[in-house]
Amino acid sequence: MSISALPQPIKALLQATARHDRAAVLASFADDAVLIDMGKEHSGEEIAHWADTLYLGSNVRVHPLHTEERDGHTILTVAVDGDYEALGVTEPFQLDWHIQLAGDRIARLRMVEKQLDLPAPVLSFVQAMNMYDVDGMVSRFSPDAIANDNMRHYAGREAIRAWLAREIAGDKVTMFVAETHRHPGGVAVLAQVTGDYDKTGLPDPLELRFYFTLAGDSIAQLVVIPAKRL
Fold first, then answer.
1. What's the pTM value of the predicted model, to 2 decimals?
2. pLDDT tens for each residue of 11-45
3. DSSP sequence for the chain
């Protein structure tokens, strides 16, 4: 399922979250809804308290990455960031939202953290990319790093920054990591990407391969190519 084809109640929750609209966030849940966030269950007025403290009250940002239907549920993978330092969380993270609907509202939402098996510099890059954070992405590259995006070459952090600002953060491109393959010099990632770029003639999501070469705790080289010939 494409992100654009999400059921309307889920779209409503995401849109209300982006606007930090408390009333609309709560209205997206059924009156008898159950919300389970990291193992803790909330219902009734507890959902309002959750929204006021851990969700909207923490200036949350949620970006959808991938969705699929499984056993009558919608599984939506999202990138999340917010003011969670008091909980010991200082980096963006991923969650799988397991969602059941009742008519035009959410009856059950279970949030489960999704761990990515990636080297630290690559994990930080992916997290930053999914939050449109140019500084976060660039900081993971070594000063003399090189990048190649579909045969377009960028040498050094400033050239890489310009590319990332224009075509990744600028077009709000996100990546859902589907497969990873570690090798002695780094890791290869198969990812499904989508964003606000021109999708004419392209599948949505678009599958790309990201080949990361590491030097210590930095990315020395990144090569991005289509997973299949377009």
1. 0.94
2. 999 999 999 999 999 999 999 999 999 899 999 99
3. --GGG--HHHHHHHHHHHHT-HHHHHHTEEEEEEEEETTEEEETHHHHHHIIIIIGGGT-EEEEEEEEEETTEEEEEEEEE-S-GGGT--S-EEEEEEEEEETTEEEEEEEEE------HHHHHHHHHHHTT-HHHHHTTEEEEEEEEETTEEEESHHHHHHHIIIIIITTT-EEEEEEEEEETTEEEEEEEEE-SS--TTS-SSEEEEEEEEEETTEEEEEEEEESS--
